Structure formats: structure tokens, C-alpha cells
Amino acid sequence: MTRRWFSPLICLPLVIGLAACQTTPAQSATASAPAEVEIATIPDDPDPALWVLKDEDTTIYLFGTVHILKPGMSWFDEAIKEAFDESGELVVEMIEPEPAAMMKIVSDLAIDKTGVSLRDKLNAEDRAAYEAALKSLNMPVNAFDPLDPWFASVSLSLVPLMQNGYDTNSGVEDDLTATAKAKNMKIVGLETAEQQLGFFDNLPEDVQIRFLNFNVNSIDDMADGMENMVAHWANANISALAELMNAGLEEKILYDTLLSNRNADWAEWVDDRMDQPGTVFMAVGAGHLAGDASLQAKLKERGLKTKRVKY
Fold first, then answer.
1. What is the signed CA dihedral for 2, 6, 11, 17, rounded to 10 degrees?
2. pLDDT at 245
3. Where does the pLDDT of residue 118 fall: very low under 50, low under 70, confident under 90, or very high at 90 and above?
4. Distance CA 1, CA 213 (A)
5. Residues in a beta bridge with 69
6. Residue 4: its pLDDT value, please?
7. Beta bridge partners of 89
8. Between 20 and 30 A from 255 (CA), which of 13, 24, 210, 231?
9. Over 90: is that where the pLDDT of 120 sits?
10. What percentage of residues in the chain have a pLDDT greater than 90?
11. Over the stretch 263-305, which tens digit does the pLDDT of each residue have?
């Protein structure tokens, strides 16, 4: 049995930080429908996928994360825990700034400088749908009026999840980072908060609006779609994740900016890190480890072959 699902953009962990400030990998920011992906069930014993890259004196584990989960999922065990415990360094997409610093970054980048209201940038049909979506979430229709369309878009992808039990403090990175700090592990961020916000903020406004419209039209499917995506992640269904976790990125500029180019940059980082001895646990959004432009594919282009860890 299949059904159309939408996966909200959670390829960036910063999207989770945005929720605190205001109160995600070839698929669709246009009007096209989301891909059909089989419905999965979250197992009692989640076993997300893990890869490893090795040479004589360096080991780098690659683990795909989900940035927001419902509390209580027991994924941090077996091979994942063993690989983490072997490692002396944790690498994540971004080390989140303190709340005050994050607020300033958001204020600098997300507030529209033209003075034109967000709703006034939408045509009559899209504005009506947008306002209806906000009302359905029990939010005032002017909630994002002073802000850029991208901010409204990523925010709207989070609200239905939080209303359905997902916790911004229960993401995979939260557990990994807390454990790493307790062990006094070195923690490295691949990107800064300014960079991650900049990926969105530098998109042309028409692209931001199309992405916003896509999210608005998908509001009713987001919670169920997220549940399905988490289930495929927990079952290590990589091909399904490639479709679900990167939904919303079919438009080339989005695909390149939010997925492909970043994976190429990270592959360069991994290539350089392989020249230094040690064991590294690298945890990035699972959408980056699935699909044709995956981090593994970018590494292969550099002559670096990853291997799936069986467990």
C-alpha cells in the first residue's frame, strides 16, 4: 500500500533552533506532488543506518540523523553506541549558538528589509491558502508578516510536528552532543548558524515563495509524513529516505544549495580529515546520506569508498 506523503524540510538542524527563536536531499518546491513512498512502521528496536570509512590510521563513521523526534525512541545502542564510544571526536552539521546569539542572527537575516508584508508578496489565491494554514495551526495570520518567506516556510514545517508530540530537544544531535560533552569529546561543527540561515536567506524571493506555498499546501500531511519518515529511518530504508527526507528540493537551486553543494563541501572536509589519525563519529541529517548526491557519492568521486556497517 502506498500513499502520497510530504516530508517537511528538516535537513538543517538550525530549523530546530528557529522554533526556539520565534515562539530540515531530488524532490519538490514547485506545485508537483510528493513522491509515493510505502508506509512504514516504527520498530520496537530501531536500527538506523551507519557507514564507515577507514584507512591505516583513521576511521570516520557516518551516521544519518533526524533533527526532531518524539521523546523515548531507543536508537542510541548496539553498533551506533559502539562506534560512538570508539570515537574521540563528534562532528555535526552545526554547533548551535546560545539563544541570545541565535536571536541576533535570526533578527539580522530573517527580518524583511523592504518593509513589504509577507502576505502582500503572495497572490490572492496563495495568500488565502497561507492564512487558512495559519488559522488551522491556531496562529495569527500576521504571525510572519515582517519576515522573509523562507522563515515562514521552515517555521510552518515545524509547528504541526510540535503540535503532534515531536520535541525540539529530542533530536538525535541532542543526545549525541550531550553524551560527547559528558565524555569531554572534541565537537566540531561543519557549518555556522550564519551559513545555515544564509542558505535560505540568499535564495531568490520567488523561490522562497514557491517553497512556502509548497509547505502551506502540505500542512495536513506533515505529521503523518514525519512519522513515516522516522519509521523508514529507524528501519534503515535508505531509498525511501532519499525521497522523504529531501522532499521539497526538486527545484535545482534548492537541491544544489541545500543538499548537493553542501555534501560536496563535507566530502572535502572528510577527505582532509582522513589525513589525520583518529576515530571520528560524523552525524549529519539522514537526507545527506541517501540519494544520487549523497555524501557517500561525493566521497566516491574523490576515491573514498564507504562501507555499510551491518548490525
1. -130
2. 65
3. very high
4. 28
5. 167
6. 31
7. 186, 280
8. 231
9. yes
10. 67
11. 999 999 999 999 999 999 999 999 899 999 999 999 999 999 9
Type of residue numbered 242 = A
pLDDT bracket for residue 8 (50, 70, 90): very low
pLDDT at 247: 62
